[in-house]
Amino acid sequence: MVPEDRSDGPGAGEERARLQAAGTVRKGCDLPADSPHGHLQSRRARIHQQIDRELRMRTGAENLYRATSNARVRETVALELSDVNSSLQLLKEELAGLDNSGDTAQPESEGVTAPMIPLGLKETKPLDWAPPLKELICRHFGEDGASYEAEIRELEDLRQATRTPSRSKAGLELLTAYYNQLCFLEARFVTPARSLGLLFHWYDSLTGLPAQQRALAFEKGSVLFNIGALHTQIGARQNRSCPEGIGHAVESFQRAAGAFSLLRENFSQAPSPDMSPASLSMLEQLMSAQAQECVFEGLLLQAPGTAHDCLAQLRLAQEAAQVAAEYRLVHRTMAQPPIQDYVPFPWTTLVHVKAEHFRALAHYHAALGLCDGAPVAESELPVLEQVFLASAEARSPALPQEREERSKLGKAHLRRALLGQEAALQLHAVCRALRREDLLQAVLARALRRSLAKYSELDLEDDFHEATEAPDVQPKTQQRPEGRTPSFSQVKVADIFHRLGPLSVFSAKNHWRLVGPVHLSRGEGGFGFTLRGDSPVLIAAVVPGGRAAEAGLKEGDYIVSVSGQPCRWWKHAEVVAQLQGVGDGGVSLQVATPLPAAELPISGDRRPALGGLLRSQKECGQETPVPSRARPRPRPLLGWNRKANRGKTGRTLSPAPQP
């Protein structure tokens, strides 16, 4: 875990020792502090603490500046604010440097591929779930909250483990399991009018600034953000010098784009910049561009012997132009407010470098196709001419058939390739953080040397012809990687608070009154009621004047315990068998009576109301519930916007014979 010296929660070292002693170390969680990830997270945690201190100092200085009218004091405070803001900027740059260093920025093997941009995980503070959950279990569910300490501890351990997920499939499954568990919590304990009352504290991934909300949706959104961020780190670590590694990288960036798209479409009013619609749209574009880059690298691996194939080289030129176009779009997005105010400068520069680099590669491959490719059939000329973009006042340029003319046009494309590669190297030299990326510099320098060598080969003889102007290459791809939404259903989890009963009835959205224990003895006509349904079993009808009617049981009551045994999850046959086995001593029943609208608690009562029983939560505890639809809130909160498709058809319940 992350060793943190915070007063609001246990240190990570103590937590690690406790988890190891209890044998509850979760799969997919990096525990050792000396592991690369543990060391990186420790440094990030220290930077977050320093940012917290600087923010508190800035808040105090701003309050003093507004409160005083003394000119000397205001001048002193203004100097203090300037120092604090400078310190914050340095801390943010250091935080951005961590996201592009260490194990998260370098591929797993040496190669000739350019580095990718991984996204750092959002950090969070420890959280004490016990007080609000115990109170709600006691007040609403009518059970002893202290008896659920094991479940609460399991939830806390799961959340603590998700703070340091491993860079692997197991780490993704860990985050997904916690996200699914949050869906269960939201369905069971949260209503549109009331939150759990917990203050969720997360740090912005891009700036390191803290953000707080009491909405469970903020916790869900932050975890979903980390799922996308972890996919970016896994994709950036792949060995892209082989087809298998490229395939994994493409899928990882697709999954990341899908996670950010899902977050952008379904959550609103985020309190931190990294989860704003503008930031998420930029991240989605960035991951799509990186996936497209991996696709181009895969095509290069498949085409080592196509140097003399004009059509193959021109298609590679179009693929490179497609990558360049996507990176140009990302760069324009990053350069616009408010994105430009908090996106790390190395990111913007790297995206700009790649846009120039791949545009140069497009011209390089076009030159290879024109200079080295064999003449093409006349019937294919119209198709090949569409590779090049026409100017505003001319039609698509004609593709020359004569070798000399093709060579001249190829040299023109090589000149544009050389200019673009030199521009990319100059941009690389401007950014101090990128200058430390030896791998990136090697990729750019190799591309420049390759173009220079080809140009020298074509320039053996002087020619006195007027220099040809090379047209732009039309961006086009045969394989566009679309974003892929995370598959939450593949990670099966059991509802931690399964003992409270099926979500279809026993959730904070519904209201009932616990009645009993009620003692019943068997009469001539049995107990005087009929049952139907499973989990929980419902009293379908009460015989007038029978034993059940005399005891106060009503039609529609749910049986929650039989002779002291909880039976909220029992099947119909199990309850009937238990009642049929009752002797002369009778049986003790406890039931939950749904409250009609007229009997709902008045405003201000902390108990939730029954707004209609939730139906069709199939196999509760084994499937992820659909997020609830958002409703207006009294203050800006992160909310789930998508209209979830809730099941409307309940289970068909057949009447049972009287026991």
TrEMBL record:
<feature type="region of interest" description="Disordered">
    <location>
        <begin position="465"/>
        <end position="486"/>
    </location>
</feature>
<dbReference type="InterPro" id="IPR001478">
    <property type="entry name" value="PDZ"/>
</dbReference>
<feature type="compositionally biased region" description="Polar residues">
    <location>
        <begin position="475"/>
        <end position="486"/>
    </location>
</feature>
<keyword id="KW-0175">Coiled coil</keyword>
<dbReference type="Pfam" id="PF00595">
    <property type="entry name" value="PDZ"/>
</dbReference>
<feature type="region of interest" description="Disordered">
    <location>
        <begin position="616"/>
        <end position="659"/>
    </location>
</feature>
<dbReference type="Pfam" id="PF03097">
    <property type="entry name" value="BRO1"/>
</dbReference>
<feature type="domain" description="BRO1">
    <location>
        <begin position="115"/>
        <end position="461"/>
    </location>
</feature>
<feature type="domain" description="PDZ">
    <location>
        <begin position="517"/>
        <end position="584"/>
    </location>
</feature>
<feature type="domain" description="REM-1">
    <location>
        <begin position="30"/>
        <end position="104"/>
    </location>
</feature>
<dbReference type="GO" id="GO:0007165">
    <property type="term" value="P:signal transduction"/>
</dbReference>
<feature type="region of interest" description="Disordered">
    <location>
        <begin position="1"/>
        <end position="40"/>
    </location>
</feature>
<dbReference type="InterPro" id="IPR038499">
    <property type="entry name" value="BRO1_sf"/>
</dbReference>
<feature type="compositionally biased region" description="Basic and acidic residues">
    <location>
        <begin position="1"/>
        <end position="18"/>
    </location>
</feature>
<dbReference type="InterPro" id="IPR011072">
    <property type="entry name" value="HR1_rho-bd"/>
</dbReference>
<dbReference type="InterPro" id="IPR036274">
    <property type="entry name" value="HR1_rpt_sf"/>
</dbReference>
<protein>
    <submittedName>
        <fullName>Rhophilin-1</fullName>
    </submittedName>
</protein>
<dbReference type="Pfam" id="PF02185">
    <property type="entry name" value="HR1"/>
</dbReference>
<comment type="similarity">
    <text>Belongs to the RHPN family.</text>
</comment>
<dbReference type="InterPro" id="IPR047138">
    <property type="entry name" value="RHPN1_2"/>
</dbReference>
<dbReference type="GO" id="GO:0051497">
    <property type="term" value="P:negative regulation of stress fiber assembly"/>
</dbReference>
<dbReference type="InterPro" id="IPR036034">
    <property type="entry name" value="PDZ_sf"/>
</dbReference>
<dbReference type="InterPro" id="IPR004328">
    <property type="entry name" value="BRO1_dom"/>
</dbReference>
